[in-house]
Write a structure and sequence with these properties.
By secondary structure, the chain is α+β, with helices and mostly antiparallel strands. 32% of the residues lie in helices and 31% in strands. It has one domain: 3-Layer(aba) Sandwich (Aminopeptidase), CATH 3.40.630. The chain is built from 5 helices and 7 strands. It starts with 5 loop residues before the first strand and ends in a 7-residue tail after the last strand.
């Protein structure tokens, strides 16, 4: 599939038709990103999503979210991060690539596309990733994220997660 003509579509969650919404939710849930309630959470905290297709087949998805302050605080506290959660209002997440489309650089491209949106708002962004997902870690790091704090246990499924942060405008030294 190398060189395949993937298309990237950026949408606000309210712009999704019912088929796109169902496909996005199934993709995120199938990728182990959340157990349930994706549609509700997308409506509550979703900012923008990316749908990646090859012809009519959904190959990958990702999203920017604006999580509640309490959730952000818990993430940064659980990771024992020195960074302040209030400095990172946007979360990049729900990046899932279908197995047959992996090793095409799609996760890195999704991160890049989503960061273009957050950069236009001059916002710092954070992400979490399972410590076992080295490919996702590399995608984040290629796009300017750095590890923050230490791995911690997810309350959702007991996986170990790593917090990553990306400052849009680094502090002057």
């Amino acid at each position: 599939m190398m060189g395949a003509p993937y298309t990237f579509q950026i949408k606000n969650p309210e712009e999704l038709d019912i088929n796109e919404l169902e496909s996005f939710c199934a993709f995120v849930k199938g990728g182990g990103q959340v157990v349930s309630g994706v549609a509700k959470r997308l409506k509550e905290i979703g900012k923008v999503i990316v749908l990646v297709r090859l012809a009519n087949e959904l190959a990958a998805v990702g999203a920017l979210k604006v999580p509640m302050a309490r959730y952000r605080s818990n993430v940064f506290k659980s990771a024992a991060a020195v960074e302040q959660p209030t400095d990172y209002p946007i979360e990049l997440g729900w990046v899932v690539v279908a197995e047959r489309h992996r090793k095409q650089g799609l996760s890195s491209q999704i991160v890049k596309v989503l960061l273009e949106v957050s950069d236009s708002e001059q916002a710092n962004v954070y992400a979490t990733s399972d410590v076992e997902k080295g490919a996702m870690h590399r995608s984040l790091e290629r796009n300017g994220f750095v590890k923050a704090g230490a791995p911690y246990r997810s309350e959702l499924d007991n996986d170990r997660l790593q917090l990553f942060v990306r400052k849009r405008f680094p502090e002057p030294h």
